[in-house]
Amino acid sequence: MEFGSERSGHEVKDEKRSESGIGDEEDRREEKIVMKGPPLTNVDRSTVESGPNTCPTKKKEVDELENAKAEMGEVIEENRRLKMCLNQILNDYRTLQMQFHNIVEQQTKDFSDKVNNDEHQETIIDESELVSLSLGRLPRNNEKNKASKPLKEEEDKEGLSLALDCKFETSKSGSTTEHLPNPSPDNSVEVEKEETGGESWPPSKGHKTNRDTAEDEVSQQNPAKKARVCLRVRCDTPTLNDGCQWRKYGQKISKGNPCPRAYYRCTVAPSCPVRKQVQRCSQDMSILITTYEGNHNHPLPLSATAMASTTSAAASMLVSGSSTSNPGSRPSTSADLHGMNFFLSDGSKTKQYYISHPALSSSPSHPTITLDLTSNPPSSSPSFVKFTSNSNYNSQRYLPTSLNFSSNESNATSWTNNGFLSCTTQQPYNNNRNNVNVLSNISLVRQQQQQQPMENILTSYMQKNNNNIAIPPPQHSLPDTIAAATKVITADPNFQSALAAALTTIIGSGSTSKGAGENNMSQKMKWGESFPSTSALPSSSIVSGCASSFLNKSPSNAQSGSLIFLQPPLPLSSPRSASGSPGDNGDKKN
DNA sequence: CGCCTTTGACCTGCGC
DNA sequence: GCGCAGGTCAAAGGCG
């Protein structure tokens, strides 16, 4: 789309707006964003002005214009709804930010008070309460002072349980209510990170503490703590270069796979609890199966954020999906949502969507989400995610969740794929009371014919928010446009938060709305307009990356977890880039 | 010398 | 309780 033609399109829009009586400046800008139809040219305008009585062809054109206007009206209406939703989300975000700030201040204050209490040898009972609210970290030191070991263990467990309960509340509230603090399912992951590893990582078995024991119990109570993200990619290199630094700490020959499984841990920060497992698929050696566990507790290199975002978001989907729904918080997004095909259907046929990866099947205690970059989009048989969870646990909290990043490219060693992303969620219905499984299938399908609108969105956003970035002519350099626009978008925390929250709400409401009691639900949301095809783009272009990256980068923004967001891709595999994954040599023995 | 990989031993959870 | 398998540890050695 050229700028000139875009301008004429705006003129027509303005005409239409004057008809409908709408029109402040902000709305006009947003309209520009949503504009998806081909803009009217000067010829078109002359056609309109000259009237329909000149010739049949012009009459036809006028009809087409009428139709286009009607479509635009729908788009405008939808845009208005989204705008209202966005404003509400932004308000909520600000409120939550203030609440979070207050909470942090309060906790800091409490902690300093507690330290003072320690100095004055006051009782520890009050501190135990503080511990519980501090996710179980503080009690450890406090209880070391206790003489009675059994009592210590008991109280330790209690403290952790309480802390965990608090976490659950947070997690649950995250997807149920917009007005509660920390509505982010991702927070749950963050909590998991801190509790599973956190500052005490790596846990030494020789120094296993009572806290560790308690943590084990807690982890059994909360399987989501060990949520994993499994990535299947066709890759010739030994490991994926995800931008992080990894140290290999073990290797095992797993049953059913001649290829050894390598264990890596993140070495960017000594206390980082993130681990990954790398293994070749036994059935197809070209497929590299990488499983990530945990969240980084340190700033990530820029090159690592995409992968971390994806895994984090995917893990968040696992966690967030476990939350109960609040139908009241559901926005009116069941209709046209710019390219996101959203399916909710009965779970009676869920089994057909599972693929099994015996070579990398995780422990039943690990809910695992698999991002499959190896198979073709919907045309092929669905290769979704294998989700495992231990039925002995409170399985109602955990959603078998599937993501499928499919690619037509045989060498899917980067995030570039055809943009097909699907998320299948098999969810124990209604807290497992009725044993009714509901399959919710979320898919984001980039549609090749809908490339323009995304350009409009990105370009308009750039125009609005950043004048420093040159906007290339979209039709000439769409990849550059998108890359630059993505930069701008990712630089704006408000937009990120708002969009993240919106998407989370959309996804969350869709996947959890069955809590209202509908056993058979089929819901579709089409969202294609916002996910243009990028099949023509080079591999460094836009991707269907999952982006809670900004959630990682900015904890204050971590208001939503399960979201899928467009983000600058990173090559998953390149032989030892500068950011260097030391583990690239990890499969030497292979 | 520091960091990394290798590799056998050990620990733990789970199924029978 | 036992065996199996997954996961982790840590000493030894290699490499830059």
Automatic annotation (TrEMBL):
Stretches of Polar residues bias are at 43-56
Q: Name one Pfam family in it.
A: WRKY
User: In which compartments does the protein localize?
Assistant: Nucleus
GO MF annotations, alphabetized:
DNA binding
Q: Where is the WRKY domain?
A: 235-301
Q: Which Gene3D superfamilies did the record assign?
A: WRKY domain (2.20.25.80)
Keywords attached to this entry: DNA-binding, Nucleus, Transcription, Transcription regulation
Q: Where is the composition biased (Basic and acidic residues)?
A: 1-19, 140-154
Compositionally biased intervals (Low complexity): 562-582
PROSITE patterns recorded? WRKY (PS50811)
Lineage, top-rank taxon, reads Eukaryota
* InterPro entries given in the database record: WRKY_dom (IPR003657), WRKY_dom_sf (IPR036576), WRKY_plant (IPR044810)
Q: Which GO terms describe its cellular component?
A: nucleus
Q: Positions of the region Disordered?
A: 1-60, 136-223, 554-590
Q: SMART domains in the record, alphabetically?
A: WRKY
- Name of protein: WRKY domain-containing protein
